[in-house]
Amino acid sequence: MIMNKTIIPMIAAMMLFFGLQVDAENKAKPSTKEKPELITLEISGKLTKRESKGKNERVYTYYYLETKGGEKIRLNKTALPKIKKDKNGNKTEALTFDKFVDSNVDIKGKGYVKELKSKQKRTYLRLIDSIKRS
Question: What is the layout of strands, in order, in the sheet containing 39-53?
């Protein structure tokens, strides 16, 4: 009986101490997901469009820029510039990928190049400044 009165509080104190120590170690770790530094990119290639059916018959549309080197860069609509107003206050035409499908284009924007685990390099575009037919 005396042993239970001393062992149980001792075990509880040890569990509390080790629990606090593990929690402190988890908070001390820096986050592994760091945002990559965006660089200015100028890429040329053919803009293609692919559609696929998902669940509930919903159609998903994907746009890719196929470079001459064989790299396929996926283009996101979120990278397109927002609608702007010109000097007179008129809204300028929104930039869309549909106008450039199946044509050779030059894209200027900001993004980054990341090396994958397979040692291949993949390019990501995050902000598109302009798209022109070449």
Answer: 72-75, 59-66, 39-53, 103-115, 121-133
Q: What is the pLDDT of residue 4?
A: 63
What is the rounded (10 degree) CA torsion for 13, 16, 21, 24? -140
Model confidence at 17, pLDDT cuts 50, 70, 90, reads low
Burial of 106-132, coded b for 16+ CB within 10 Å and e otherwise, reads ebebebeeeeeeeeeeebbbeebeebe
Give dist(CA 126, CA 129) in Å, integer. Answer: 10
Q: What angle (nearest 5°) sits at the alpha carbon of residue 87, between those of residues 82 and 89?
A: 70
114 Cβ neighbours under 8 A, 6+ residues apart: 36, 121, 122, 124
Asked whether the CA dihedral 132, 47, 44, 128 is positive or negative, the reply is positive
pLDDT, tens digit, for every residue of 90-109? 666 677 888 899 999 999 99
